[in-house]
Write a structure and sequence with these properties.
The complex is a heterotrimer of chains A (377), B (506) and C (245).
Chain A: E1 15-24, E2 30-31, H1 32-41, E3 51-56, E4 66-72, H2 75-88, E5 89-96, E6 110-118, H3 132-146, E7 150-154, E8 159-164, H4 168-174, E9 181-182, E10 184-192, E11 205-207, E12 210-215, H5 221-230, H6 240-254, H7 259-266, H8 271-274, H9 279-292, E13 302-307, E14 310-315, E15 324-328, E16 331-335, H10 338-344, E17 350-352, E18 360-363
Chain B: E1 13-17, H1 27-31, E2 37-39, E3 44-46, H2 56-60, E4 66-70, H3 83-95, E5 98-101, E6 116-118, E7 139-141, E8 150-152, E9 158-160, E10 168-170, E11 174-178, H4 186-199, E12 202-204, E13 221-225, H5 234-237, E14 242-246, E15 257-259, H6 266-272, E16 280-282, H7 292-305, E17 312-317, H8 322-331, E18 336-340, E19 349-350, H9 351-356, H10 361-374, E20 382-386, H11 392-401, E21 405-408, H12 410-415, H13 438-441, H14 446-471, E22 486-488, H15 493-499, E23 502-503
Parallel strand pairs in B: 11-12, 11-21, 12-13, 13-14, 14-17, 17-18, 18-20, 20-21, 22-23
Antiparallel strand pairs in B: 1-4, 2-3, 5-19, 6-22, 7-10, 8-9, 15-16
Helix pairs in contact in B: 4-14, 8-10, 11-14
Chain C: E1 2-5, H1 11-24, E2 28-35, E3 50-56, E4 66-72, E5 86-91, E6 107-110, E7 131-134, E8 147-153, E9 173-178, E10 191-195, H2 198-215, H3 219-223, E11 228-232, E12 242-244
Parallel strand pairs in C: 1-2, 2-3, 3-4, 4-5, 5-6, 6-7, 7-8, 8-9
Antiparallel strand pairs in C: 9-11, 10-11
The chains are: A alpha+beta (377), B alpha/beta (506), C alpha/beta (245).
């Protein structure tokens, strides 16, 4: 049986890794060729037990619908899940996710995608008044927890995750990403350290429009998890990446923090630096730490985080994981290693290594004018 | 009734003097608060029945001529009828009294901290050097909103809208536990006040009011309101950094207390605002709290009296249903809940209560933290864990189980020379700690012991930083409640479940 | 002088208005339509401040109060004068349970009846002498653990016994004056009963005069009978109860 879910007797699944991201602020699209080329330079950062990509702008024709990518390891699971979906969603289109047989990816689950929206008269409306986003989150968690042999690995609008067990370049071929176009791409090459590879555990991890690729191990996982559980997040995957995604979801979508402030929760400035700030900033950041101390990501990490409004790349507050950024015209590139960027953009306008905890934030230009530049999150 | 003139109870210790070493300087006579030693014309004599093994005499004997040994005369051993049972029966048959003593229980119950092991990083995530890289212990005690509220200015910059409830800022997650002036000496309180100020932490007045000499230390003091309301008035409530309502104490859950009239001298009378020489009785309950809504009433009476500027802490003993109790306390509006385990200390309590009532802090804390999280209200109050925190390791484990900070009482007294003889109730403490006899109190120098307390808490804080570094985190909030970093050994499934931790190896 | 219409007002707002008024130098407050607001007069200070209340004040009236005078033209609820340090509270009707808990100074005069545990753990200290006078009758556990101060029980409505059971249980300080004896079986073992002498009556006179004046009743009517005096037999009632381990 293929491993869609983390059934190993570990509290969580951790890994070392390599990562990349490409964004065009004017939403000019590229195919998956570039990101594949970049991440393949970081081949040795993984071990063939996980690779994956997130792409934004690839489902332009269904941009208003939630695009669910679901892996099944048997057809009865598919039947059960589809019954749930039909009861709760209007499914406008469904089809197998296009793949090609390759010599490198032999065993894979059955992969299917659905473009849909929650029904306005769905049964749970009798008990709740959840918004569509919250209902989608609840559905994803419910399927992943309760339906054996099924796993939702992508659920956003006009975006999709493509991932599996294998090196990322092979995964790209498997999903035929050279035929997919998007204006933002992230990629991940995985080196799991305490579990065998499993399809669901590959990165990116996504929820709604959030996608995260992540390098490093979160040493504060225990409390981050318990903190999120207090807000009814169900951490079924037991991965750091899942924790980071949910923290962003909580901070940005539910608590309304601008993305910049959310990053200062994840990689909080030290009190000794906060104490040097002007009073207003000091009060703001002290209050953030007081309220969100349990959401501080402690330990080594570099993440590339995509959402409908743009991309954030950042590392931990004492820089234990590498991150390089570069710009070329409207393109911004981030990666674990500069060579990955140079492979697809040999002469960037600017190359730099972000400081510890200092995020690289790129927003799509048409959204910038609005409040804090952040509406649409 | 005929009064019998002899006692069955033999001396527990022998105070032996090596007369070949003794130079008859009589320091032992001066130092012993118990009257064990006297001068017999040519040599020092010992009345063994008075010795409590408090260690003062041999510490101060310049010739090393004194040894205190357990009386080798045995009470015939019996696995069922233990020595303490037999002695208590004799004592009570001779006096008709309730047996009381000071400090915590002496029973050997299982200590859960000793069955919990900590995690460290190897390869997959790095440990951090705590000496050369930042390692944050700063802790804020008080209610935290569940989310931040922001406004945005015209440039789209966030402006803080949240009005943060009042917080106690601690530079390291320790507080001194509540010990009243009366149960301990003013010099002992001063030593803690000096240390608290230097460390950026807080001490706690206990229920005996605030002595004038401590008023300047207000920013480092929690003032307590207990059922006796000693020394409680509006200025008192406003003189500290926070106010604590004492409902219970780990050593004696559910019962009150009383400071015997002979300890109420002029100075204590002034501080407690009661007449000299009367018993200071603390009723078992607060007589304005017979139910949880009444606790809310008192919490808000205090908030009104302090203009909502002070966090209100509620101290309770760890008892069977503690998780639900604390949930109620948090919902009643407490900003801090102080949970005292059954091994906590006391100035005096009946042994029947001390030895048999309450539950371990580790189990109580684990359940409380879990319950508050399940109810989604863990942010509503900070938790202080207490009840014999014996080392920084205990502190780390308590914090990982879910405490925001730990309180130390007995350990602080040990710093001041306490040998845990458990005779605090008698008022004869040779170390000048749990006594009001001026000649004994005088010997406890607040400056000297303030510095030693500072040293201890600094050392423990460094040890916590070492542990954080080994765990690969550089802030105490990343350890707080992180039970994933704990594993149990020699614990049953039930115990592991209550603690919310896995067995070592898993 | 300000008048506050407390109709529908939360106690937090009402008390804030009072505190702010005091901060501005207001001396007289008239509170209208009070109904259940807690903590009126909580922790306020100043001997020349008076608060007149029309309606039913909520629990903890005058808690931690230090000097002002509160007059209630009606009944009051529980915990009147809780841990009060100084000042005066007048209740023209009845008061609830636990009047004057831990009270250290000041006066509470009640024209009608009061509930259980009146004067519990009341204390005197130095020149501070708390005084409670109850015109009617009281419930059980009257003056429990009383440690100081003076309580006068007038029992003006001559129907039945003016106090409940466990009278003065644990009393170890202060004095209780009774205008008439109560059933002997109700007294705790810790107290002794005497007839009040001339000195006692002279001491009481100034308080009874004030009480009569405050409530506009005749001094002669309340001071007419011989009074009885109850004092604790020991300041250390429990000294024999414990033995050291």
């Amino acid at each position: 049986m293929l491993k869609l879910k983390n059934k190993f007797s570990v509290e969580r699944d951790i890994s070392g890794c390599g990562l990349c991201g490409i964004i065009n602020a004017k939403k000019v699209k590229t195919t998956g060729e570039d990101i594949k080329k970049a991440i393949s330079v970081e081949h040795d950062r993984g071990n063939g037990l996980g690779g994956g990509f997130a792409v934004y702008g690839n489902y332009q024709d269904y941009a208003e619908l939630y695009a669910f990518h679901i892996m099944y390891d048997n057809l009865s699971a598919k039947g059960n899940v589809e019954e749930y979906l039909k009861n709760n969603f209007i499914i406008e289109k469904e089809e197998p996710i296009p793949t090609s047989k390759t010599s490198k990816i032999k065993d894979h689950p059955y992969l299917h995608r659905y473009f849909m929206k929650p029904k306005s008269d769905r049964q749970d409306k009798l008990f709740h008044d959840l918004g569509d986003d919250d209902f989608v989150v609840q559905s994803v968690m419910s399927i992943n927890e309760k339906y054996d042999g099924a796993y939702v690995f992508s659920s956003g609008k006009n975006m999709g995750a493509f991932k599996g067990v294998g090196y990322p370049e092979d995964i790209a071929d498997f999903y035929k990403l050279d035929e997919v176009e998007g204006y933002m791409w992230t990629a991940h090459n995985r080196f799991p350290t305490n579990t065998p590879g499993w399809w669901g555990g590959a990165h990116p991890f996504t929820l709604l429009d959030w996608s995260i690729v992540h390098n490093g191990e979160i040493s504060s996982y225990g409390i981050n998890k318990r903190y999120l559980e207090m807000y009814k997040y169900n951490l079924s995957l037991k991965t750091d990446t899942e924790v980071i995604t949910y923290i962003f979801d909580l901070l940005v979508r539910k608590h309304g923090l601008p993305i910049e402030l959310a990053t200062t929760v994840l990689a909080a400035p030290f009190y000794q630096n906060i104490d040097k700030m002007d009073n207003k900033k000091k009060e703001l950041l002290t209050t953030l730490r007081q309220i969100y101390g349990s959401a501080l990501l402690n330990g080594p990490f570099a993440i590339v985080f995509g959402y409908s409004g743009g991309m954030v790349a950042m590392n931990d507050r004492i820089k234990l994981r590498p991150l390089v950024a570069a710009t070329m015209g409207d393109f911004t590139y981030v990666a674990s290693e500069e060579a990955a960027i140079r492979a697809i953009c040999p002469s960037p306008d600017l190359v730099w290594s972000p400081k510890a905890g200092e995020p690289v934030i790129v927003k799509f230009e048409e959204l910038v004018a609005q409040k804090g530049g952040l509406i649409g999150l | 009734m005929i009064k019998s003139s002899f006692s069955n109870i033999q001396s527990e210790y022998l105070a032996l003097i090596d007369h070949t070493k003794c130079v008859r300087c009589k320091r032992c006579i001066q130092n012993c608060g118990w009257g064990t030693y006297s001068f017999g014309g040519d040599k020092i004599l010992s009345d063994h029945t008075k010795c409590v093994a408090c260690g003062r005499c041999y510490t101060y004997c310049p010739e090393g001529a004194i040894s205190i040994v357990k009386n080798p005369t045995v009470i015939r051993e019996n696995g069922n009828w233990k020595e303490n049972h037999i002695k208590s029966i004799w004592k009570q048959s001779e006096t008709g009294g309730i047996v009381i003593s000071g400090m915590g229980t002496t029973f050997k119950y299982k200590k859960y901290f000793d069955h919990i092991l900590l995690d460290a990083c190897q390869v997959t995530n790095p440990s951090i050097d705590p000496l050369r890289e930042p390692m944050e212990l700063k802790t804020y005690l008080g209610k935290k909103p569940s989310k931040i509220e922001l406004d945005f200015n015209e440039e789209g910059e966030p402006i803080l809208k949240t009005k943060m409830p009042p917080q106690i800022e601690l530079q390291t997650p320790f507080v001194f536990g509540a010990m009243s002036y009366g149960s301990i000496s003013l010099n002992a309180q001063k030593a803690m006040a000096l240390a608290a100020r230097a460390l950026g932490i807080v001490m706690n007045t206990g229920e005996g009011g605030l002595h004038d000499d401590l008023v300047p230390f207000g920013k480092n003091i929690i003032v307590q309101v207990a059922s006796g309301r000693f020394g409680v008035h509006r200025d008192y409530l406003n003189s500290g950094i926070a106010v604590e309502i004492k409902i219970g104490q780990g050593a004696k859950p559910g019962i009150g207390g009383h400071l015997p009239g002979e300890k109420i001298g002029l100075d204590i009378s002034r501080t407690r605002m009661i007449p000299i020489g009367t018993d200071a009785i603390s009723p078992a309950p607060h007589h304005d709290i017979y139910s949880i809504e009444d606790l809310r009433q008192l919490i808000f009476a205090i908030k009104e009296a302090t203009n909502y500027e002070k966090p209100v802490s509620v101290k309770v003993a760890a008892v069977h249903n503690i998780a639900a109790i604390v949930s109620g306390i948090v919902r009643a509006g407490a900003d801090i809940v102080y949970i005292d385990g059954y091994t906590g200390g006391t100035g005096a309590a009946p042994n029947i209560i001390k030895d048999h009532v309450g539950i371990p802090i580790e189990l109580a804390l684990a359940q409380v933290d879990e319950r508050l999280r399940e109810e989604g209200i863990r942010n509503e109050a900070s938790l202080i864990a207490a009840g014999s925190i014996r080392s920084s390791a205990d502190a780390v484990k308590a914090i990982a189980l879910g405490a925001d900070a730990v309180a130390i009482g007995t350990a602080a007294l040990i710093v001041m020379g306490c040998h845990v003889c458990g005779k605090c109730n008698t008022g004869n403490c040779s170390w000048g700690i749990t006594t009001q006899r001026p000649e004994l109190v005088r010997r406890l120098d607040p400056e000297v012991y303030g510095e030693r307390l500072y040293n201890l808490i600094s050392a423990w804080s460094h040890e916590i930083q070492e542990v954080l570094g080994a765990m690969g985190v550089n802030s105490i909030e990343s350890l707080r409640g992180s039970r994933e970093r704990l594993r149990g050994v020699e614990l049953t499934d039930a115990e592991l479940k209550v603690l919310g931790i896995k067995h070592a190896g898993l | 002088m300000i008048t506050i219409d407390a109709n529908g007002m939360h106690y937090r707002d009402l008390n804030r208005l009072i505190r702010e008024g005091i901060g501005r130098g207001v001396k007289k407050f008239f509170l209208e339509n009070v109904n259940g607001q807690y903590y009126i007069g909580d922790g306020i200070k100043g001997d020349d401040i008076t608060i007149n209340i029309n309606g039913i004040p909520g629990n903890d009236l005058g808690v931690f109060m230090d000097g002002p005078t509160i007059a209630v033209n009606g009944n009051a609820q529980d915990n009147v004068g809780n841990t009060m340090n100084a000042g005066k509270i007048l209740i023209k009707g009845d008061a609830g349970d636990v009047v004057g808990y831990g009270m250290r100074g000041g006066r509470i005069y009640i024209l009608g009846n009061a509930g259980y545990r009146v004067g519990i753990h009341m204390k005197g200290y130095n020149e501070q002498l708390p005084v409670i006078i109850i015109g009617g009758k009281v419930g059980s556990f009257f003056a429990e653990y009383m440690a100081g101060g003076v309580i006068v029980l007038l029992g003006l409505n001559d129907t039945d016994d003016a106090a409940g059971d466990y009278f003065a249980a644990g009393m170890h300080g202060g004095v209780i004056y009774l205008r008439k004896k109560i059933d002997f079986s109700k007294y705790s073992k810790e107290v002794e009963l005497y007839e009040a002498d001339d000195n006692d009556m002279a001491f009481l006179k100034k308080y009874l005069l004030e009480y009569a004046d405050d409530f506009n009743i005749s001094f002669e009517d309340i001071a007419g009978k011989p009074f009885y005096k109850i004092v604790p037999s020991s300041a250390r009632p429990y000294a024999h109860l414990y033995t050291s381990a």
